[in-house]
Amino acid sequence: MTRMVGWRERAALPELGISDMSAKMDTGALSCSLHAEDIEITNHDGTDRVRFRPAGCDEVCSVPLLEMRSVKDSGGHVTVRPFILTELVLGGERLSVELSLIDRAPMRHPLIVGRRALRGRFTVDAESADLLGVPELNAQKEPGSRPTKRSETSQRRSATSRLRASLMPRRGLRRAQ
Fold this sequence. Notes:
By secondary structure, this protein is mostly beta strands.
């Protein structure tokens, strides 16, 4: 059963020290994205890490790098971004999400929550906002909420298949004259 969320909600990223921030529920985005500044990839004891300053924080975070991945933004521009695995709190639910880091300074919402995080858990009401209220940091973690990591090739292949299917004309439908 899914919960209803508004197009904008309050969210938390407790592992990054963020207890409350504005998040846009974006069904047009596949993945989640966080505004971050001073992003740098480091290697500590043979492990790649990402150092960055999250939106609205003065402290620098250093977390393991999940992978570098190509992402197409809403304008069609492709950039290679660092992805991390972290915990997202929406309402009373804790979810493990893959989060890309990018400088979103000109954007209104520092956090984008994409389809992968929303799928099967939330339904977005595009006419409402802030339905869940302030994130509950003592929320229970949803069982099995850790995302499955698929290879980039597999992700591209399934995305290409969905795109082809959406562009194919449907039989029996005619264009209005």
